[in-house]
Each structure stands twice: as structure tokens, then as C-alpha cells.
Amino acid sequence: MKSTNLARLTPTGGVHGTKRVVVNQRQWRDKPLLKFEGQERYFKTGTEAVQIITDEAKRRDGDKKLYLEQFEAMMQSLTPVFDRAPRYAWLAKAFLEPERSIEFRVSFLDDSGSVRTHRGYRIQYSSTLGPYEGPLHFGVDVTSDKLKSCALGTCFANALNGSKLGGAAGGANFDPQRSSESEIQRFCQSYMSELSKYIGPSTDLPSIGQAVGRAEVGYLYGHFKRVSNLYSPHGSGLLWGGALPHPEAYGYSVVHFAKHALEERGETIEGKRCAITGSGKIALAVAERLIALGAIPLTFSDQSGHVYEPDGITEAKFQKVNAIKQERGARIGRYIIASTTAKYNDRKNIFDTPSVDIVFAAATSSEIDVAEAHKIADSGCKMVVDAAHAPTTPAAARVLKKLGVLHAPYKATLAAGVLLDNAEDITKTIDDITAKVYFDVSKTAIDYNARGDLNAGTNISSFLKIANLMDAHGAI
User: Fold this and answer.
1) Domain range enclosing 128
2) Is the full-model pTM beyond 0.85?
3) Residue pLDDT, tens place only, 288-312
4) Could you tell me if 230 and 260 lie in one domain?
């Protein structure tokens, strides 16, 4: 029988399974998927399997709203996989728990001589595909809920990009924006004193994230090599040897993914009017790349509000914004002093921006909920592109799909950013990787009768890549 892409994704037989496979599937369904306190739960359909697994996730992590939202959305996408090959439900069950969750105290002396104590984390979710890899986030909003969700998402992103890396996330509830440079350095050193026990070139590769950029990477790597006696080449390896080569990589990845999605629909990104939320590393890189490709960025935002240029942010105007945001803690509102045409508004009103073709959500988790999704669709916008960790809630993603707005999920859009150590031509490298990721995701959605649903295609493709190898590792 001629093999198909679907058979490749589900090597146990897929929709065209032999009689032997069908018997095998019945045997799987005769086994309890979960046992708890003497109760056994069985399933006959993929929907029932998803319900059993998500109920167990709620029992274990009922206090983690963001994680549960993302976990449940991922599992719902896998319903057709469980229908066609029930044994995958047993493999999916392993995602109920990360391989390792580390939580520790981080204390340091501030500039006044007082001891400040924060909570540090590293959640190493899956090493099935290779060493753990994933971001470090610093900020008052960093919690175990956010990081567990982020670590799960990183597993799936790294499965898509072919990096042969697992997934992790870490950080601390420390705010660099309200700290001096010397305090940031002391905090990074204290954080790394503990984190260094759990990371290494062949174990775990921390990456950049919220409020973790060039300076923080340098401080973290400097202390790591001091306490571990392990080293990385300049510009590559663990923490890039303290020299972050391409902080723009994740933003470029987002834009090039959107470019390929538009091109498949017979459109081009050139001339598209784009609203950007946020004004951090990724948001700035998104704007920079949009300008280079002929698109028209319109907005930036932060906690204080958002700026809007009715005729677009040109290269010269972008350089002014970039110069402002290079100063730690600077607010985007300062830009209106440098522009005679910019308008400054409340942050929540950014989705009221007129004549927007594409929204790039690069600010924070869950910034687009159901109300914002309706507002975006009603404005005539045709595409929402995630450029941060889970900026679009699963409920909002369902609304966008129902109203005909294409949604590009963060697991796919950010996937190419991790692979760039010393790439000579990062734009070509990113374009090649995002093309492969996009067409993989798009084709998988078609194979599972979800044409155009990039969320389903992303979750199914990445899950199968992990699960097929996880099966070979046994119950670990």
C-alpha cells in the first residue's frame, strides 16, 4: 500500500490501518487510561480521552489558569489523533507532568545594603528530543503557572523547528526595570548560583526571554563559568558564551511566518498595515523586519499606553523608538516628543486602531481575549500573529477562526528563533526554517481535516514528533 504523509505522522496505521491495527486499537481501548484512588477511566472516542486527561490536569493543577488553558487547548486539538490511533492517548498522558520542576530562593544585597529575596524557577518539561532549551523570564508577573505553560509551549515549538532540543522555561519574580545595573548583576549572579546545578551544554540551554537580554545573558554566563568551570565559544553554545548574537531572531521568525502564510493565500506582506502590541525585544524586531519587507507598522505599546502613527512608522521613526527603548525602563510615551504626527492613547485601546490588516501580539500572555477578538474581526483585520507567549487565549482563537480571521499560534511563529548562533545570513536562515514550519503545520492540518486551522496543525504535528520518539524511550 502506498505510504502517505498521514501514515508517516501516525506510523501505527493511521486512517488506513490494517485489520491487525484495528484489533490493536480495540485492545488499547480495553485498558484504563487513568487510575486514581481505585477508580478506572476508559474511553471509546478521542473526545472522551481528551476529557479524561484534561480532568486529571485540573485535579493536579487547578490553581494554574494559564497552564490549564493552554494544556486543554492542546489536548482538544489532538482529538482526531486519539480517534485514529488510541495508543497516543497514553503517550499524551505523560504531558500531565514536567520531567522536573525546580523552585528556589534567590537572595542578594541591594544598593541600600538590604537583603532582597525572590523566588527562582526552572521547569524542565521534556528532554525527549534532546537537551532542555527554553527562555528565562524576569518580572513581577513570573509565576510557576506562567512558566509551566511556557515550558510546555517550548517543547512543541522546538519539535517543529528540527532543533533536536527539548523544552524548558525558567526565571524569577524579579523586576529589572526597577533595579539598578549593579543590583541586576548581583541578582543574576545569585540566581545562577542555584540554577547552575541543573543546566549545562548537554543538559539544559537557557535562552532569552522577558526582561532577559544582552546584559542579563552576560551576567548569567559570567557567573555560570565561574562556578561550573564549563565554557562556551563566544557567540554560541550555552548562553552564547555571554555574547548574544541575534536578539532579533524571534521577531524576524514571527514576521517570516506571517509572510509565508500570506503568500500561500496569494497575498504579500508588502503594504500591509500592521498593529504591534508591546515594545520589547521581539516587538522592535518585528517592526524592523516589517519595514524591511515593505509593510507598514502603526503602533507600539507598553504598560503606560500606546503610540500610533496614522501614516506608519518609517525607518527614521523606528530608529527614534529603538533609541528610547534601549534605555532600561524607558516608556514608549516619550516618543510623542520626537514626533509631530504620533498619537498617544490608553494601552487597552490599541485594538481600536483603524485600517489594520495584521495584528502582531508581542506584549504579554492573554492580551487578546474574546472581547478583543471580536473587536479585531469587526475592524476588518484578516490575521492575528502571536509574537509572545500565548498572547491569544484559546477562547479568542476559536472566535477568530469562527469569524474568518487567520490566527498564527506562538508555538509555530517563534519556532525559528532558537536555531541562530552564528548564522551568517540570519534572514535567509529564518526564512528557510519558517517556510518548513509553516508548510509542515499547514499540511498536517489538512491531513487531519482541519484545513486552515494553524493551531490544530501546530499541536498535532509537534505532538506526534515528540510522542513517536517518547514511545521508544519507554515509561520514564
Assistant:
1) 100-242
2) yes
3) 999 999 999 999 999 889 999 999 9
4) no
